Amino acid sequence: MDWLLLAQIVYVLILIVVCGKIIYDTRSNVKTLAYLLVAIFIPILGMLFYFTIGINYRKHKMYSKKILDDNDLAKHLKEDILHISEKAFAKGGSAVRDNKELAVLLLSDINSALTEGNHVKLLVNGEKKFPEVISALKEAKHHIHIEYYIYDDDTIGREIEQLLIQKAKEGVDVRFIYDDFGSRSLRKGMVGRLEEAGVKSFPFYRIRFIALANRINYRNHRKIIVIDGQTAFIGGINVSDKYINQNGNGNTLFWRDTHLRIDGPGVYYLQYLFLCDWNFCAGNRLKPDTSFFPSMDSFPKKGKKLVQIAASGPDSDMPTILFSLLQAINLAEKEILITTPYFIPGESLMDALCIASLGGLSVKLLVPGVSDSKLVNAASSSYYEELLHAGVEIYLYQKGFVHAKTLVADRKVAIIGTANMDTRSFDLNFEVNAVVYDEELANELADVFYDDLKDAEKIEKESWNQRGRMKKLTERTARLVSPLL
After folding, report:
1. Terminal CA-to-CA distance of the chain, rounded, Å?
2. Is 109 designated active site?
3. Among residues 393, 376, 283, which one has the least CA distance to residue 337?
4. DSSP state of 424
């Protein structure tokens, strides 16, 4: 028997099966083609690459979001969500009326209530966020729920650690979820110290084999803090000294980022997300009760802002965050302001931005002038020519690294969260955004955007088109693999 021939036949059969799986499981045609080319033209390693980072967990469902075993309770909760949202629609002003389709989309897709009576505070950069977080944590009485992609064992990380330990000793239930890849430095010491002090700590989707684990591709990119079910923090700022721009901090790069503090019923869905993630990674079931979800009547009327949460990940039926961004862009009538550190859009997002600009809207995109990834930066650059041709204004931030993930539509809707404008955030990562229907906050965020433009360089269409052929070739080559980044 010719063993070489037999081996070739077996390999071809395996390749056919793998290609069939790629075609059957992968939602995006572009990604399907990319994975097929890798599998076919890079023998063995191509198939390993697919099984390492390519499996579609949205199709297979990593875990169930169901946290209610009682069907009557689930039905009652859905009725409450609908009732709360109807009241908010009735009391809302033009910001929510003009964007009702966006609110309905989130309500229909993920049962995310449109909530009124929220106080929302915009926090620009770590030097504004962390004092606010520390102050709120000190006031915790019942529980602290904290979930981060990156939590560093550094000065600010240890300061919050000591506060969490102190609150645990006071009898506050402290639960901590960290991404096992993004916060891998915690494994050596901090997690042990937290657990010894009574802080319940678990990695989200533990990574045991860093080099080959498929799960390394599915990251919990969320940054959530929920305190006593009434106060929450959400946005792009991880727990790390590099996010704090202060003298003597040792940072050589200015870090521009945006976060939110929410006080009010807008916290509800963030609490729900945390409970779902906790039940998945901790192995013990936390059930919703009034200690986690206080009565709406218990919230003091500190504000009038309408808040809704958009969230999605490999556990979602739909790419909800992508759909919400597309809906916000499609509903805009005058102006769209976008800040993102990573811009690798799919066809739908590119089409939406081009259509908006060609339709007469002012569309401005702020991206890093200096990125922390040369490959991502090259892939992003490959999309600019088409956007510039459609009239989109593109600005390169020069002061440092812009890491904020925000969108302002018509100065009526403000979206702040963890999701980048890229395939990874839309399909692979666990992400969360806050949608605020409020002209005051939207104007505040728009003002921040225009302040950032003072430290940015506008790309001129004519000079951009004159880039050398080798540079264009490099960018377009990077774009070929962009669906896999």
Report:
1. 43
2. no
3. 393
4. I
- CA 417 from centre of chain: 6
**Spacing of C-alpha 385 from chain mean position:** 26
Is 410 in the active site? yes
Instruction: Using CB atoms within 10 Å of the CB of residue 356, give its burial: 0 to 12 exposed, 13 to 18 middle, 19+ buried.
Output: buried
The pairing of strands 335-339 and 406-409 is: antiparallel
Angstrom distance (rounded) from CA 301 to CA 115: 12
Instruction: State yes or no: is 61 an active-site residue.
Output: no
Backbone angles phi, psi at 149, to 5 degrees: -75, -55
Q: In sequence order, what E strands does 125-194 have?
A: 143-148, 173-179
Q: Answer positive or negative: Cα dihedral of 153, 157, 159, 161.
A: negative
> What pTM was estimated for this model as a whole?
0.89
Residue 142 a catalytic site member: no
> CB atoms < 10 A from the CB of 246, how many?
11
Q: C-alpha distances in angstroms, 341 versus 149, 315, 396, 402?
A: 16, 24, 10, 6
Contact 161, 195 (CB under 8 A): no
Active-site residue identified among 153, 179, 180, 228: 228
Alpha-carbon distance of 378 to 371, in angstroms, equals 10
pLDDT digits (tens, 9 = 90+) for 182-230: 887 787 789 899 999 999 999 987 766 544 444 456 789 999 999 999 9
Report d(CA 456, CA 56) in Å as an integer.
37
Determine the Cα–Cα distance for residues 247 and 170; give it in Å rounded to an integer.
34
Q: Which residues pair with 362 in a beta bridge?
A: 335
Catalytic residue selected from 221, 242, 259, 364:
221
The answer to whether 405 is a known catalytic residue is yes
- Alpha carbons within 13 angstroms on the beta-carbon side of residue 222 total 32
How far is residue 446 CA from its own chain's centroid? 20
Q: What are phi and psi of 414, to 5 degrees?
A: -120, 130
Evaluate if residue 58 carries a pLDDT over 70: no
Q: Are 221 and 149 in contact (CB under 8 A)?
A: yes
* pLDDT tens column, 76-88: 677 778 888 888 8
Q: What is the pLDDT of residues 334-354, one digit of tens each?
A: 999 999 999 999 889 999 999
